[in-house]
């Protein structure tokens, strides 16, 4: 064949002409493997997270806890400031189901008390001749639901004439359980607002330090080292102590939140900076630079989404720090103050060891603090493992 004929002859076509689809996988792959290969990264993270049982349980617990702050007035047996002057320092009441061997349903006995003249302590005892059944979705103390509507509907309360102090009362006869439920609204939201502020600062400052490097990074790191060199709790106390006593409770709430957030962003900022330092040399960042993308767009659209899963896990682990900070400051009398009710404010009443010895139920507000902190730590561990689903 002449060279001209060979040139005009069609070459054999070794590439399949069938339409290509990324969803088509080798038939030798099992359906389970196909499902894994075609899953997005977020779906892979969700699958890995669900395998962490403690993290899932903690997540459900925290969701229910945060949902409860939306309906605190309904869940609490009594209104926030309701006082029962006849039941000062009353111990927790027990809920019973049987009376004299017969099933009655949930109820509480009446309460009698006498004054111990040796230590002037009120001694309460059950009056088993009086039974007060528990009613659900009942009418009780009136309250303003989020300042919008007036209502008196409660989840559970004792029948008319009875009391329901499941966790006892304090020195003013206020129900401890109701105050814990109301206090959750402050203690839990201060963690979310605080982490939102510190998270924003960490993204901006850490992102700029990691992307530009040089003098920007050097200055940022020195500022972070100076902030971290101060003892955290004494610094919290010093900043909280300078807040004017004439400020309204709402201003005090936001001031304490800002103080806690301004001292918590340093760890997150260093995490952002280290991640961006490792990602800024990748090819897709160079391609974005060559196409004329500005640094703000490169950081926001290309770098931060790649490390957002790690940052969410880190932020989850930082929320307990802010909650503990508020609790510690309020316990020491330097944080939130009455009439604001938080878990730290409630614990402030248990500072006196003699009060704790006589009325140990006053330290029960520490229980939800411990449970929430443990739940956040388990949730953070699960999110941190799920942030890298390919391991």
Keywords:
MetI-like fold; 2 domains; 391 residues; alpha+beta; 15 helices; four-stranded antiparallel sheet; single chain
In terms of DSSP E residues, the strand content is: 5-15%
User: Which structural class is indicated by helix and strand composition?
Assistant: alpha+beta
**What value does the Rg take, in angstroms?**
30 Å
Question: How many strand segments?
Answer: 4
The CATH class of the largest domain turns out to be Mainly Alpha
* Annotated CATH architecture of the largest domain: Orthogonal Bundle
Strand order of the largest sheet: 1-2-3-4
Low-confidence parts: none
- Could you give the order of the helices and strands? HHHHHEEEEHHHHHHHHHH
Supply the number of helical segments.
Answer: 15
Percent helix = 40-55%
CATH topology of the largest domain, by name, is MetI-like fold
Shape from CA axes? globular
Counting structural domains, the number is 2
The profile of the biggest β sheet is:
4 strands, antiparallel
């Amino acid at each position: 064949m002449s060279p001209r004929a060979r040139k005009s002859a069609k070459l054999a076509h070794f590439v399949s002409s069938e339409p290509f689809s990324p969803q088509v996988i080798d038939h030798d792959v099992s359906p389970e493997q196909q499902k894994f290969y075609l899953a997005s990264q977020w779906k892979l993270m969700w699958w890995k997270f669900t395998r962490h049982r403690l993290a899932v349980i903690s997540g459900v617990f925290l969701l229910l806890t945060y949902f409860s702050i939306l309906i605190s007035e309904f869940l609490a047996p009594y209104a926030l400031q309701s006082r029962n002057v006849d039941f000062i320092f009353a111990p927790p009441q027990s809920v019973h189901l049987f009376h004299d061997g017969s099933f009655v349903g949930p109820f509480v006995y009446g309460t009698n008390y006498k004054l111990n003249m040796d230590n002037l302590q009120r001694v309460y005892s059950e009056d088993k001749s009086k039974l007060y059944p528990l009613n659900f979705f009942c009418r009780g103390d009136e309250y303003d639901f989020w300042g919008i509507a007036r209502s008196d509907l409660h989840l559970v309360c004792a029948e008319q004439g009875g009391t329901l102090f499941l966790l006892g009362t304090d020195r003013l006869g206020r129900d401890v359980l109701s105050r814990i439920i109301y206090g959750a609204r402050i203690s839990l939201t201060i963690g979310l607002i605080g982490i939102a502020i510190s998270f924003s600062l960490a993204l901006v400052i850490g992102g700029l330090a990691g992307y530009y490097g040089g003098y920007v990074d050097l200055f940022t790191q020195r500022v972070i080292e100076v902030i971290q060199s101060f003892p955290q709790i004494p610094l919290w106390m010093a900043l909280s102590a300078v807040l004017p006593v004439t400020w309204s409770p709402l201003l005090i709430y936001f001031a304490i939140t800002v103080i806690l957030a301004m001292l918590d962003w340093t760890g997150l900022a260093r995490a952002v900076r280290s991640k961006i330092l490792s990602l800024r040399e990748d090819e897709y960042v160079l391609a974005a630079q060559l196409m004329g993308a500005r640094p703000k767009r490169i950081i926001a659209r290309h770098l931060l989404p790649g490390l957002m899963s790690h940052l969410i896990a880190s932020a989850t682990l930082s929320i307990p720090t802010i909650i503990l900070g508020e609790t510690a400051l309020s316990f020491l009398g330097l944080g939130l103050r009455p009439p604001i009710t938080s878990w730290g404010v409630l614990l402030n009443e248990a500072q006196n060891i003699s009060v704790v010895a006589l009325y140990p139920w006053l330290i029960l507000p520490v229980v939800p603090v411990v449970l929430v902190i443990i739940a956040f730590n388990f949730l953070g561990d699960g999110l941190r493992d799920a942030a890298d689903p390919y391991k």
